[in-house]
Every structure is written in structure tokens, then in C-alpha cells.
Specification:
By secondary structure, the protein is an alpha+beta fold. It has 4 helices and 8 strands; from the N terminus they run αβββββββαααβ. Helices cover 29% and strands 27% of the residues. It binds zinc ion. Zinc ion binds next to helix 2.
Length: 169
């Protein structure tokens, strides 16, 4: 039985919350979202299926269906593919041994220097009072590039067409 990832280890992974698409999903049911991003120098482009449940006034609440186990969740984590916390927990040990871990370590070193909360999922937290602007911008720039390399997801399209949703390994 694989261990479920702890909160602190989950902070090491970029997260994708369905609520960040709330505005785009307001117009009704959607069946999948197409994502494009790169992770560790590899490009990914695929659809993630959605589920929806009816809520007040004819609106729908949307959920991710984990590409690996099809569980209905509101947050996915990136470890190459975006998967749910249970699936990333199962992978966590082997993830740490991969070269991508060096990118995480470097990003964490920058975060420590900036006095930011550990974990790239926590985003940018501003310039420390006594840090010179040029140092700050240099570090921010490097941090952003690392995050982009680790997993800079962008939404390509929301599919309202049921037949189009597919996930291929
Ligand atoms: Zn899963």
C-alpha cells in the first residue's frame, strides 16, 4: 500500500486547482480541459477529463478526474503528468531520485534566500525589505525560469464536447 504524500512533500509540486478555471467554466458543463506545458525539458499536451455536479440555479460545479486513477478531485499535482494527491503519493519516492529534483533544490535555495515559504506551490511572496532590487529581480527571474522548467502549465482549451475528451498514455 503506497503512502499518501504528506502536505510538505505536496508543496514541492506545482498544483492545478479546478477553481482557477471557475470563470471560464461558468457557462455550463465542460467535459475536459486541454493543457500544454513542459516538465523537465519534455513537452506535454493532453486533455484532462472533468466531471460536473449540479448546484444552485442551474449552475455546475466542476471536478478533475485524475488521469491515472479517475478519482474525482479539485486539485491535481504535476509530476510529469498532472495526477491526484493519492497518485503522486505513490510516486513520491521515485520522483526524488530523478534529475528534476535538482531544479526543485535550486528553486528552494532561492526561496530560502528570499525568505519565502518553502514549496513552489506557494508562489512569489515579495521582496525582503533589505534586499537590493537588482538582486531581487535576478533571483525572481531565475526562480520563474525554474518553475517554468519544472512545470509551467497553460490551459489550451476547455472542451464542451463530450466526445472529445480523451487521455492517451
Ligand atoms: Zn489519481
Amino acid at each position: 500500500m503506497p503512502a499518501i504524500a504528506t502536505t510538505s512533500s505536496l508543496n514541492n509540486y506545482p498544483r492545478l486547482s479546478i477553481s482557477s478555471y471557475r470563470e471560464q467554466l461558468r457557462q455550463g458543463k465542460a467535459y475536459s480541459i486541454e493543457l500544454g506545458y513542459s516538465y523537465g525539458g519534455k513537452s506535454y499536451s493532453y486533455s484532462i477529463k472533468l466531471d460536473n455536479t449540479a448546484c444552485h440555479y442551474g449552475n455546475y460545479r466542476h471536478w478533475w478526474l485524475c488521469p491515472k486513477c479517475s478519482k474525482r478531485v479539485s486539485v491535481l499535482y504535476c509530476a510529469g503528468l498532472y495526477v491526484c494527491r493519492h497518485c503522486i503519493g505513490a510516486n513520491y519516492g521515485s520522483q526524488l531520485k530523478q534529475p528534476i529534483d535538482r531544479l526543485f533544490s535550486r528553486a528552494e535555495a532561492i526561496r530560502r534566500r528570499l525568505g519565502w515559504q518553502a514549496g513552489i506551490a506557494h508562489g512569489n511572496q515579495g521582496r525582503p525589505k533589505h534586499m537590493h532590487f537588482s538582486t531581487y529581480y535576478r533571483l525572481i527571474n531565475e526562480h520563474n525560469k525554474l518553475v517554468q522548467k519544472i512545470c509551467g502549465a497553460t490551459m489550451v482549451a476547455i472542451n464542451k464536447n463530450k466526445g472529445r475528451a480523451s487521455y492517451e498514455r
